[in-house]
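Follow-up to my post from last week.
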Amino acid sequence: MTLRLYLLQRLTAALMVPLIVGHLATIIYATHHGVSAAEILGRTRGSLGWALFYGLFVLLAAMHASIGVRSVAADWTSLRGRPLTILMWGFGVLLLLLGARAIYAVVAS
Amino acid sequence: MSDVIAVSIWRGRGEGRYVDYEVPRLDSQTVLDVVTYVQRHLDPTLSYRFACRVGVCGSCAMTVNGRPRWTCRTHVEKVVADGRVEIGPLANLPVVKDLATDMTRFFEKWQQAKGAFTPSKTRHDKVAHIMPASPARVEVDKAIECINCGVCYAACDSVRWNPDYLGPAALNRAWTLVNDERDAGNKARLAAVAAAGGCHSCHTHQSCAQHCPQAINPTASIAGLKQRTLGAYWSGALT
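User reply:
Got it. Predicted complex:
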């Protein structure tokens, strides 16, 4: 279990690298070209590409961060076994919901 | 320079306090010499552990001015701060009394990490030929000189946070056997070090490498175990 989570956390980190570069490049482009919020929304609304890009990003981030929180909790608290698993899943689902809400706001609403 | 050192030594078990002593300063004096002076001349009830006095047996490690050190090879003049030296028991281990710690869990973890050699041949087989320059033996050489002193274990944050963590010394030992061509126990060993509290609990803080008196880098050994366990997982040898 620990080995699988360790592997999954590293895999999600590796997969996030190009997404982070893309995300930062988008931010720099938008700020340097003075793209307004309305113009950004104009480009993202209804865009399957942006939905997939950030959908994947949110999914990977939720998996990566929740495994990390599990490790921190294992080190810094007396939680073990099932409570740790519940914490990991709970945190992961929370991040997934928050991320999905943000994507919905810029792509679908 | 004053001709005495102000020494503060931990007395007691879990409950206890630092007690001050004054010890004459001598040339080439080690921290172990200081502790021995206190026991022989000032307070014979002081408990501590040592054997060889020359950095081989690994029994005299203590916390000196906040850092874990082998006291027999630590010169007082190198660690003394403002004429004072504080000497306590190793961290992350239960205190038996004064400066003597209970190493039971430390060595149980060596067994848990499958730190014992598992022979693949009998005495009737030919002696294995291990080339000193072979990559596996080079890895063993980097890690083999451990004297089991517990300094890395006391220095490790992960051990402090997670009592189930096997610790740098046991994992370093496992790494030497993983690279031992004569050993036949690697399937069980890799499973043991990949379990909860195993090599993946290491956060690569490198305190072990920083403090190891033998200049071993257990963090590198643990990184090797991480790679090897992942390889075993990919190939289906670990489930």
